Amino acid sequence: MQLIYQCAWIVPLCPLISSILIGLGLPFFEKSTKSIRRICAISCISSLSVATVICYNLSYEQIIDNSIYQYSWSRISNGDIVSEFGYLIDLLTCIMLVLVTSVAIIVMIYSDGYMSHDEGYVRFLVYPSLFTASMLGLVLSPNLIQIYIFWELVGMCSYLLIGFWFTRPSAANACQKAFITNCIGDFGLLLGISGFYWITGSFEFENLSKGFKDLLVNNEVSLFFAILCASFLFLGLVAKSAQFPLHVWLPDAMEGFTSISALIHAATMVAAGIYLVARMFPLFETLLFVTSVISWTGAVTALLGATLAFSQKDLKRGLAYLTMSQLGYMMLALGIGFYRAGLSHFITHAYSKASLFFGSGSVIHPMEPIVGYCLDESQNMIFMGGLRKHMLITGTTFPLGTPSLCGIPLFACFWFKDEIIADSWLHSLFIGWIALLTAGLTSFHMFRIYFLTFEGEFRANSSKENTPVSSVSLWGEFRFEEFGEKKADSVLEIVEKSSPKEFFRFVQSNRESSETEIGNYLSAYPLKEPIHFLYPKESDYTMLIPSLISSIPTLLIGFIGAPLPNGQLGSDLLSHWLNPFGNLSPERFSENWLEFIEDAITSISIASFGIWSAFILYGPASLFPRDLEKKIELELKGFWGFFINYMYNWSEYRGYIDEYYNKIFVKGTRILAYASSFFDRWIIDGIVNGTGISSFSGGEGMRYGEGGRVSSYLFGLVFGMTILLSVILVII
């Protein structure tokens, strides 16, 4: 066996060592550690670079010989329970290793520029390194016990990163929400692992799948119990990959800084669930009910994420809902049995979403000095617009990730998204319609984000003194009021007050340049001092270079899934790499180039319709016909007006799911806790305390009654006899 396989244990160890060294130095040598912050950053990046080199070498060796290598160096034995610890290397492992390390090292370089001003910069360096080490350990795990250990570490690191700015209440609440939601799934995962060990007597992936199949064929296991265990196992994956109904933590996780949002959405937190479904795919495939649950969960999640993004004003939160939708796509593909398409879309989506989050961070970072450091302002697309003119590089990299996520031809996600849609039609007509509709909504929302952010005119101009308030409603028109003469509502208040009926007039109201309108305003109300408007500038090179690097895979990575010249869809590279069974089912990849193009036409058409809709509603003002506004106003009456209002409210209140959870679980838990407290305080403690008080009172009474005076005793005797005789006479 080659030396490179024996060195695989170094991969998670490299980021772990850098995390431990910096973490130990921070509390004990705080001043010294902070003084060498740049050295700490270089050490983290260097350790990840070593891990990345090893991963690429492992992948190269796997591509050549396509062998499976498993090594175990320790064993924990407790009676009948035996668990080995080690690592498993196959093509799936290597692909995940390359994905995690490549994204992680770009995130670390990007974060050096994004977080350089933060006081907790050194503390920040500890968390992503530990996060990456945990994910690498999870990917290399050969059994479910080891998976569960690293699974919990990944959840802990996400809690620390989401709540990095823990002094902000919203961040503290968001990290707690993510932690509690994932704990629900983790409990289900633990039950599923325990159940399958009880069935098969093994935690190892290979023994687990083969043993379970043999028991199922010989009818030696209860089918109901097996489905129950698989459902519990899948519950853990639902929470980690933000699938319905445990998706509620993902949008709030945007409270963390943007570079870590890229790491969570592309290569670690949400990737863990998809990876484990792929790893357990041979087991899940034997239970048709479970695969049906997986596919329907993915379909509902995909559609739900796409609809909840309808009216999001927050740039990162809009991307988060689209991440949720694409994760549903992957889960849908795995559930209907198309392993290659689901996992391939996972790979291409990871690089595309990393590029988009890097672009959003490059936008948010220069917006903060202009509109303020509050997330409701710096991440609000209402304050943006026209940034392509002021940020040329970011305005180039972000649009590369946008068409990729939409499935535009020749971009990364194109080669697999249309395949998932076509496969969905073969599985179920209803699921096919959901997949097709979600594709159109994804294109609409992605170009909505692009047009609001990079096209039009900049909408957050400000100056140091006597600045007129330049505000724009999410749905309505510009308003200009002089700050010194009349106190205007804040922009956010104006946004909340506006009606959804004016939504489609948003771009129309922005036809004229904001400088021209402000010039007209100033001619009517001249100010004593000239106004100097601020515009966002391009980010530092430490942020731009990673953005450029991450945009390259959005163009090239998808070609590994393109059909080779012999014309067969199964002849692409990923068909040979992503194979859980050792050989591919030939009927699954029997299509030729003509059928491939026919399948692509449908997905391209619906994506083009979504892009056209976004262009009509949010596109550059100069390209709009003048009579379009009147036509849209007519369309908004009647059914369409009701539909738009409903969709706006649906998205604004997150599908009312959070409200239901708050009323049923949060308030229900509080009522139950109050009832338990009341029962414990007044019933349990009341009985004990009542007994004690009764004994104390009786003792005190007896003590005062035994004073030693004969007259008192005679009085008591006469009084008692009188009462007794009275009772007897009454009874007689």
What does this structure look like?
- NDH is composed of at least 16 different subunits, 5 of which are encoded in the nucleus.
- Pfam families: Proton_antipo_C, Proton_antipo_M, Proton_antipo_N.
- By secondary structure, the chain is mainly α.
- The protein has a domain at 642-701.
- The protein has helices spanning 3-6, 10-28, 30-35, 37-65, 91-114, 121-140, 144-162, 169-200, 205-217, 223-240, 249-252, 258-266, 269-279, 281-284, 288-308, 315-335, 339-371, 375-378, 387-390, 394-406, 414-427, 429-454, 491-497, 514-524, 541-551, 553-556, 573-577, 593-618, 628-635, 639-652, 657-705, 710-731; strands at residues 69-78, 81-89, 468-472, 478-482.
- The chain has a two-stranded antiparallel sheet. Strands 3-4 form a two-stranded antiparallel sheet.
- Strand 3 (468-472) and strand 4 form a beta hairpin.
- It is globular, with a radius of gyration of 32 Å.
- Mean pLDDT is 79; it is low at 462-515 and 580-590.
Tally of individual helices: 32
Number of strands: 4
- β content, as a range? under 5%
Shape, per Cα inertia axes:
globular
Q: How helical, in percent, are the residues?
A: 55-70%
Pfam families: Proton_antipo_C, Proton_antipo_M, Proton_antipo_N
GO biological process, one term: ATP synthesis coupled electron transport
Catalytic activity: a plastoquinone + NADH + (n+1) H(+)(in) = a plastoquinol + NAD(+) + n H(+)(out); a plastoquinone + NADPH + (n+1) H(+)(in) = a plastoquinol + NADP(+) + n H(+)(out)
Family: Belongs to the complex I subunit 5 family.
Short summary:
With 732 residues, this protein is mainly alpha-helical.
